[in-house]
C-alpha cells in the first residue's frame, strides 16, 4: 500500500471504471481515432511500424518503433484499491466534493446519449447513495463547476449529445435542499471554461467559443453569496493569456491558478442534423497561469507534460495541487489521442512540478477526490480508486 510512500494520499478516483467503460463505448465513434484508453493498455504492446524513410547508400536504416507508452514519464509505483463502480459510465462528467459526499454530474454515456442526472457517492459508507435530476435546461457536458462547500455552481457548457451547441445559462444547486436556481447568464456561451470561486466572486475564463474550436480568452466574474448572485451582470476581468477548454482551475493560498488545457476541439460536421462530431486540429499544453493581484497573469513552470481534460481531476493535499490523468499531445505517428496515467504534484511552496505516481491505467476526464480523513491523518493516506473488475 502507499502508506509508506513519502507523499501518500488518500486519493480516490471513483469514476475510473465508468470512464473506462465510456471510453470503450465511444471508442468506435468519436474517440476511436483519438483514444488510447485504459482498456487499450494492450495497445502498449502493439507496435507502430515507422519506416524511417531514409536510405543511406543502398541500405535501409533500421525501422523505428514507437509504441503507445512512449509518452509515459517515469513514475513511482502506487498500489490502488478497488471501490464500487459508478452506477453509469461517464465521459466528460463533472464532480464536486462536499464533506464525505461526491456529487457527479451529467456527462456522456456514449456519444449519442448524455446523462441528465447527478449520482452521489458517500466516502464514509463507500456506497453510491443517491440520484437526482439536473434542470432540463442545464448543459450535459463541458460545464464549468465549482463549490463553496454547500452550493455547487454549474456554468454554461454543451447542451445535448455529439458536438451540439453550448449555452450561456448558469445554475446553482443547494446540496442541503437539493433545489436548483438559475444565475444571470454569461454574456456568451462557452465550452468547458475554467471556473472558480475567488474572493467572493465566481470567475469564468477561457473555454471554447461558440464554434467549439476557437479558444476564448475572455474572463468574467460575478459576486455570489450563499448560492445567490449579488449582481445582475457579469463583470469583465483581465483576459487569460492563453484560451481553450478542459483546464484545471484551482484557488490555493488566495491565488487563482489555471493549469493545462488545449486549443481547438472536435467540431460539429457542417450540415449534420445530429451535430456529428468531427475531429479538428488540437494543441494540448501544460501552461500554468496565476493571478494573485487580480490584474496581471503570471506564468509559472509548466506541467511535466502537456495535459488537458483535467477540470475535475485535481485535489489539494499537503499544500500541493495533485492532478491525475488527462490527455496529452497526439501520437506523432498514429495521430491518436494519448491519455495520461501519471499523478502530478504542484508544490505550492516552491511552485514546481513532480511526477509522484501512476494510476492503474491512463484516464481521460478523471474525477479526483481526496477523502475527508486526509485532513485529520496526513501521514497515512491510502490510495484508492475504482479499477476494472
Ligand atoms: C508534505 O510535503 C512535504 C514537502 O513539501 C513532504 O516533505 C512531506 O512528506 C509531505 N507530507 C505527506 C504526509 O505527504
Ligand atoms: C514501449 O516504449 C516504452 C518507452 O519507449 C518502453 O519502455 C517499453 O518497454 C515499450 N513497450 C513495448 C511493449 O515495446
Ligand atoms: C455517509 O455515510 C455515513 C456512514 O453510513 C453516514 O454516517 C453519513 O451520515 C453519510 N454522510 C452523509 C452526508 O449522508
UniProtKB/TrEMBL annotation:
Signal sequence bounds: 1-18
Source superkingdom: Eukaryota
One Pfam family hit: Kelch_KLHDC2_KLHL20_DRC7
UniProt keyword annotation of rRNA-binding present: no
Keywords for the protein's UniProt record, in alphabetical order: Signal
Matching InterPro entries: Kelch_1, Kelch_repeat-containing
Signal recorded as keyword: yes
Protein name: Kelch repeat-containing protein
Lineage of source species: Eukaryota, Viridiplantae, Streptophyta, Embryophyta, Tracheophyta
